[in-house]
Amino acid sequence: MGKKDLLNFTGLSREDMFAIFDLAAELKQKLKAGIAHPLLARRCLAMIFEKPSLRTRVTFEAGMVQLGGHAVFLGPNEVQLGVRETPADCARSLSRWVDIISVRTFFQETLDEMARYATVPVINALSDESHPCQVLADCLTLIEHRGKLDGLKVTFLGDGNNVAHSWIEAAEKLPISFALACPKGYEPSRDLTDRARKNGARILITQSVEEAISGADVVYTDVWASMGQEREAVERAMVFRDYQVNERLVGMAKKDAMVMHCLPAHRGQEITHEVIESAQSIVFDQAENRLHVQKAIMVWLLQS
Predict the structure, then answer these.
(1) Residues 95, 108: Cα–Cα separation, whole Å
(2) Is 133 an active-site residue?
(3) Is the pTM of this model over 0.90?
(4) Annotated catalytic residue, options 90, 133, 182, 262
(5) Does CATH place domain 14-131+289-303 in 3.40.50.1370?
(6) Which of 55, 104, 236, 292 is flagged as catalytic?
(7) Superfamily the domain 133-286 falls into
(8) Which residue out of 55, 57, 99, 134 is catalytically annotated?
(9) How far is CA 208 from the centre of its chain?
């Protein structure tokens, strides 16, 4: 049996995803109870980061330590993928030294090449195309708050970005529906959306906030200008201003709707301070669960 990677949700079944949720919940419970769980003792994780990070870096690094292993951080200056050496050469070298690799990069092609040549598992720690670790952590958070995912409507307001792409992929596998409201020209990948719908996903893409948010169990947003789009920030602030998650918009969703944001948040732009600090916000529960889900992902890839 060959090695497994987590590059997106294409290769994951619904059973795989729930296996990760169950394992994450178990590891979280053990950590809270002070029960040691060195499932990856003497294992080593290489973390390649072409983009800066708070949550992704700390949760992978701390998670590997809690699992009894070790993590090596490799920033842009150490590796310089595509400049000092190719992703393929980097992957083949790292495979001789470490047990697993996580990559936070701009281009999906970089990640795909790393996975193709690595002989150890490769994890997508974020690319411009998708962010599977984030959405798995989000789903675990929803399970904790609602007991199940069945029938939940997740509404995303803003850019059809990498997080939105992973939600669309998740809707293929999980018993949820997904709605995205965004300005014209900022829609998610049509190929990805069409494929998900063809595979049975219940997906709505619209310019209307009212249409998307009606009946929503979850109101989700992300920054309007992602890393690498800083020059577009002023323009995007104007284009997206009607998609801000504020008290008025949250009031259009179900009364008990939960508010989610993958962080970092630009308070006063895509979400207001009042909403992110409200009783409906589960933003920091999401952030906490990045740790537990990523531990589960590493164990699942190395031990299953």
Answers:
(1) 20
(2) no
(3) yes
(4) 262
(5) yes
(6) 104
(7) Aspartate/ornithine carbamoyltransferase (3.40.50.1370)
(8) 134
(9) 25
